[in-house]
Task: inverse folding
């Protein structure tokens, strides 16, 4: 706690942001070894007022609550001076001086990590391709990085988890504050198979301006970023901009030119991002190809199994309207189940409003 408190005290001083805090730490070591001492008297890149503030025993706002949250949620801390701080993050513009995290961080996570990001309002095509490509990347040993948001981010994390892979969620809140709340169960699964990480102190709520800031970390800890869907002004495109600035690879999914959420990836492709039509378009950049082997049938829910069995009994294909009559479900219920089965790769929709079982 002494180490954490000292970092927060250092950054609470007027005129000392991330860059100066890191520079001081690189000169003198962890902040608890030099704040409240006279070591900084000859430092010329901070003001006299800042030196006086650092010498005083200034308190950290909400410190008692932060301590409680760290204990209650088993939150861990890593500073930029620590060995397990992501090496790739140290070299970006404005790296975070420290990270709070829940779960585990492994060095190998960052040797082959790939960001998958996109819109919260994903199309069925975007969802399908996220699951299809994300699953293959996880099987190939990639750690999938995303932002825990609805839509593409959520599917990216699930793609890793469903294939026994590692995944990291970079948050725009404290790691104790799961946002959106509906993803609490997903967050718990990530903690068991990766990590939730954040530069924001425990207790930090969801603020609109936090999310664009955290995107530099998503791209920064990844060797490349795969942009699935998003407009030109979306957070996904901001992640791509950060990736470009950080000299990371940029991949993009080509989309329908009439769809707003395809304008971002299509724009990136025009600028030179690599087009992704299959997982090998990403893997070949790293001299790695996945063998196209058959997978076992994914686990199905009770209602998914009912629909799947109806389809098998009516092979080779079945009209959507006939499936409604057979299943006695509403259009909305059946559409949701069919999307889930499609994402799991065991059915496909074909022209004429027909469904075909694949396995």
Result:
């Amino acid at each position: 706690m002494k180490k954490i408190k000292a970092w927060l005290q250092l950054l609470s001083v007027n005129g000392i942001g991330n860059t100066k805090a890191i520079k001081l730490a690189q000169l003198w070591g962890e902040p608890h070894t030099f704040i409240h001492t006279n070591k900084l008297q000859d430092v010329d890149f901070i003001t006299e007022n800042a030196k006086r503030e650092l010498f005083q025993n200034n308190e950290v706002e909400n410190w008692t609550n932060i301590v409680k949250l760290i204990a209650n949620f088993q939150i861990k801390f890593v500073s930029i001076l620590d060995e397990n701080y992501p090496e790739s993050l140290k070299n970006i513009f404005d790296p975070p001086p420290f990270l709070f995290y829940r779960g585990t961080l492994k060095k190998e996570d960052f040797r082959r990590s790939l960001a998958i990001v996109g819109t919260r309002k994903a199309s069925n095509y975007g969802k399908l391709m996220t699951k299809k490509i994300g699953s293959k990347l996880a099987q190939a040993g990639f750690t999938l990085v995303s932002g825990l948001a609805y839509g593409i981010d959520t599917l990216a994390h699930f793609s890793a988890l469903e294939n026994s892979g590692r995944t990291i969620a970079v948050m725009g809140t404290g790691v104790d504050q799961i946002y959106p709340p509906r993803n609490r169960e997903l967050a718990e699964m990530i903690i068991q198979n990766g990590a939730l990480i954040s530069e924001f102190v425990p207790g930090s709520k969801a603020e609109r301006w936090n999310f664009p800031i955290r995107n530099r970390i998503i791209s920064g800890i990844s060797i490349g970023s795969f942009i699935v869907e998003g407009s030109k002004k979306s957070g996904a495109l901001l992640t791509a901009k950060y990736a470009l600035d950080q000299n990371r690879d940029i991949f993009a999914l080509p989309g329908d030119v009439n769809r707003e959420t395809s304008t971002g990836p299509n724009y990136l492709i025009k600028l030179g991002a690599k087009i992704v039509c299959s997982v090998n378009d990403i893997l070949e950049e790293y001299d790695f190809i996945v063998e196209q082997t058959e997978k076992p049938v994914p686990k199905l829910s009770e209602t998914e199994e009912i629909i799947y069995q109806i389809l098998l009994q009516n092979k080779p294909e079945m009209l959507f309207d006939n499936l409604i009559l057979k299943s006695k479900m509403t259009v909305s219920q059946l559409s949701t189940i069919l999307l889930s089965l499609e994402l799991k790769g065991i059915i496909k929709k074909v022209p004429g409003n027909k469904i075909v079982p694949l396995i």
